[in-house]
Amino acid sequence: MLLHLFFSLFVFLTLIDNGNAGVTSSFIRSEFPAVDIPLENEVFAVPKGYNAPQQVHITQGDYEGKAVIVSWVTPDKPGSSEVRYGLSKGKYDFTAKGSFTNYTFYTYKSGYIHKCFLNGLQYDTKYYYEIGNGDSARNFWFETPPKVDPDASYTFGIIGDLGQTYNSLSTLQHYMNSGAKSVLFVGDLSYADRYKYHDVGVRWDSWGRFVEPSTAYQPWIWNTGNHEIEYMPYMGEVTMFKSYLYRYPTPYQASNSTSPLWYSIRRASAHIIVLSTYSPFVKYTPQWKWLREEFKNVDREKTPWLIVLMHVPIYNSNVAHFMEGESMRSVFEAWFIEHKVDVIFAGHVHAYERSYRISNIHFNISSGDPYPVPDETAPVYITVGDGGNKEGLAARFRDPQPDYSAFRESSYGHSTLEIKNRSHAFYHWNRNDDGKKVKIDSFVLHNLYWGQNHQQRKSNQNRLRSLILNRASTSLL
Ligand SMILES: [Fe+2]
């Protein structure tokens, strides 16, 4: 009876707080085969020239956004690990020297994987850069973010579970037309582990070429998923994340992390925390200890927006991967509330879903208080595992839709988060099938820290005003 009353109250509060019940989209996408694009397709084309650099990608190189890590592969011989760069095209006043490495995966031998660190960059500046030599040299550019500042506007894209199918290509092309400046990637990159033996490495290489039209020009902030684990004892490969760790460097040391798999950066007005679902995270593990310390470094006066990336969603009402995020929820959710995380992006489930602001931190093994409740101090949880890989869509949602689920749809797409200032950001999810940028699910995200402080300041001002008025009226008497 008590339980029934509680549940009724929860539903009532949800309706009041959110104004409407959640939506399960009735959109049915036309079938499109979830098959990988053949290797001979032009999207995987090897650049012209002997030993030309390929699979070029950049990521943020430091904590504040004044450094970039450039990485690429030369297939035939090491060649140069140097990056020449400058402020105008073809005029490279600066040179940075990098290093290279390679690895084997069963019978596959990787090319030479270069990594070069460009430091001391100016904020809000377009840099041109060149890698490779002679006829094989290649030229690209990137833009540094604005200085870390509470009102710095900036647009992030969010992509997950991308793979290398025709649907992946559609997502990538849609994203590249979005105007976003940097990708927050929520894990599962190439799906190369869906292949066997030699082809695992081959599909990492093809994926690197596939995403290069974006990754060479703007930083992708990387995170791992289960498809990066690559624990494959049948071919003697048991080192977790081997291919990923060789190929996709992250600036983890800049945030005092001891692993490239979890780290954080500050970019414009955002503090972004990357968590590794498939690394130990329970109490006293390195990741747990690091996160506890990193939350202390978050300064909402400088970076109002606190964003967390993880692979497995904590709140997911799809049949696929249901409850898989429960272990991380039980460990970290209370911290997310305490530190007023604005939004948490995840992938893994091949569909789209957005929650209302809810929390379940009162639940413990003996409290008998199991339901998530509306909580205006909690993050919004968004699942964007809909990049378009060969496993296809997670088409079945649980019925009925839970009260905490605001919108869900089983389609391919990507999201953008357009931060306007310290208090407001525009969010939207874009479905690929519409052929152009159509905002299927969008809302204004109010900053949790500044929204509340703003209200507090307003009430302080009102109190002060009434105090002055009272004194003035008393002195008149
Ligand atoms: Fe996954």
Automatic annotation (TrEMBL):
Extent of the signal sequence: 1-21
Purple acid phosphatase N-terminal domain ranges (all copies): 53-144
InterPro entries: Calcineurin-like_PHP (IPR004843), Metallo-depent_PP-like (IPR029052), MPP_PAP (IPR041792), PAPs-like (IPR039331), PAPs_C (IPR025733), PAPs_N (IPR015914), Purple_acid_Pase-like_N (IPR008963)
Classification via Gene3D superfamilies: 3.60.21.10, Purple acid phosphatase-like, N-terminal (2.60.40.380)
Enzyme Commission number, as recorded: 3.1.3.2
Keyword terms of this UniProt record: Disulfide bond, Glycoprotein, Hydrolase, Iron, Metal-binding, Secreted, Signal, Zinc
Catalysed reactions, as listed in the record: a phosphate monoester + H2O = an alcohol + phosphate
Highest taxon of the lineage: Eukaryota
Subcellular localization: Secreted
Gene Ontology terms, MF aspect: acid phosphatase activity; metal ion binding
CDD domains per record: MPP_PAPs
A Gene Ontology BP annotation from the UniProt entry: phosphate ion homeostasis
PANTHER family per the UniProt record, alphabetical: ACID PHOSPHATASE RELATED (PTHR22953), PURPLE ACID PHOSPHATASE (PTHR22953:SF150)
Protein family membership: Belongs to the metallophosphoesterase superfamily. Purple acid phosphatase family.
Protein name: Purple acid phosphatase
Native organism: Solanum tuberosum
Gene responsible for this protein: LOC102601607
